[in-house]
UniProtKB/TrEMBL annotation:
Pfam families xref list: CinA
Highest taxon above the source species: Bacteria
GO molecular function, one term: hydrolase activity
Domain CinA C-terminal: 12-161
Lineage start: Bacteria, Pseudomonadati, Pseudomonadota, Alphaproteobacteria, Hyphomicrobiales
Protein name: Nicotinamide-nucleotide amidohydrolase family protein
Keywords noted in UniProt: Hydrolase
Length: 164
């Protein structure tokens, strides 16, 4: 997967948001702002991108997007529950009509039998619809590969949500 794929998808996401007349927010952990960067690399994106939250630590997830500490304690930072809470929190703490969230294990360390390197949970919240989550386990081709795959998947989720 190349950066060109992410760029083409980012352009498509911006165009889809414009057609729907909505702003977009991101809440990112393992991607560290790469989704927002892919979008804001495109000139003119300021009419669509409201804000991006880089919530790398558990404390940031709680403080910035309101993920309850109990949810993190019960399920771990890399979980469906946290991804959903991050997406809903990004929507609630912004002017956006759609928010995408990513939390995962990019490696090379930090993985376990239950949560291996390459596991990424995605959350998506669209105003007026129930939030959705997706689980992916990407091949461990290295940290950069996992993070880029997560960016592309997040952009795909936004495109799919806006095309429904």
């Amino acid at each position: 997967m190349s950066g060109l794929i992410a760029e083409a998808k980012a352009i498509a996401v911006l165009e889809a948001c414009r057609r729907k007349g909505i702003l977009l927010a991101t809440a990112e952990s393992c991607t560290g702002g790469m989704i927002a960067a892919a979008l804001t690399d495109i000139a003119g994106s300021s009419d669509v991108v409201d804000r991006g939250f880089v919530t790398y630590s558990n404390e940031a997830k709680q403080d910035m997007v309101g993920v309850p500490a109990g949810v993190i304690a019960a399920h771990g930072a890399v979980s469906q529950e946290v991804a959903l809470a991050m997406a809903e929190g990004a929507l609630a703490h912004s002017s956006a009509g759609i928010a995408v969230a990513v939390t995962g294990v990019a490696g090379p360390g930090g993985g376990s039998a239950e949560k291996p390197v390459g596991l990424v949970w995605f959350g998506l919240a669209l105003k007026g619809k129930p939030p959705i989550a997706e689980r992916r386990v990407f091949a461990d081709g290295g940290r950069a590969s996992i993070r880029l795959a997560a960016v592309n998947t997040a952009l795909d989720m936004v495109l799919k949500a806006l095309s429904d």
